[in-house]
Amino acid sequence: AQSVTQLDSQVPVFEEAPVELRCNYSSSVSVYLFWYVQYPNQGLQLLLKYLSGSTLVESINGFEAEFNKSQTSFHLRKPSVHISDTAEYFCAVRASNYQLIWGAGTKLIIKP
Amino acid sequence: NAGVTQTPKFQVLKTGQSMTLQCAQDMNHNSMYWYRQDPGMGLRLIYYSASEGTTDKGEVPNGYNVSRLNKREFSLRLESAAPSQTSVYFCASSEGMDSGGQPQHFGDGTRLSIL
Question: Are B33 and B45 in contact (CB under 8 A)?
Fold first, then answer.
């Protein structure tokens, strides 16, 4: 069965510092990968996705993620975080039955 | 454009009571989903409806039933609530489960406590 592992349950980082949220997935024939963000007391929103093509994908608010097939990873990065990035971030992979398999989430905590 | 609307937003039940969580989407999506979210466990799929007229079990269906009332609406019913069902419930929709990388759109959740 496919699975997704988010290695850190919480990541504290100072404002304006860089951050990396790690995600590893079990291998599959074809891979669709997603990062979703959940702000406090809200539902999840799509942040970015990898379907095919360029291994580096970007979001409109400065996040990027790189698909690494050999390491089965899809880590999320931002060069400089802002207080407004405080949220929980979820990595997901589309399974062979078309369902999404979700990681447990990583809480990004921005320290002023 | 409301997207996915869930009602109620909060609910407290006693053990053994029943209730129905409502979900409606206005994006003409074919597929709809019910998840529960518990701390440290991410999202777990309860039931889904790939298209109008079909429903299937997800990862954790026990204790729940669903109805795909029409293309817009997908309800989740707890017949006899148990404390283990205390959770935040999310409804989501997507264009289609097999439509490539189309994202799921989520409601704001229902926070359910079972005493």
Answer: yes
**Average pLDDT estimate for A4-29:** 92
Chain B hits for A102, CB-CB cut-off 8 Å, are 42-44
**pLDDT tens sequence across B20-79:** 999 999 999 999 999 999 988 889 999 999 999 999 999 999 999 999 989 999 999 999
| Of residues B44, B101, B106, nearest to A49 (C-beta) | B101
Sign (positive/negative) of CA torsion B6, B91, B29, B31?
negative
Q: Do the beta carbons of residue A71 and residue A7 sit within 8 Å?
A: no
Token pair of B13, please?
A: 């039940």
Asked if the Cβ–Cβ distance from A49 to B103 is below 8 Å, we say yes
Strands (E), chain A: 4-5, 10-14, 19-21, 24-25, 33-38, 44-50, 56-58, 64-68, 73-78, 87-94, 100-102, 106-111
Which band of pLDDT confidence, cut at 50, 70 and 90, is reported for residue B100? Answer: low
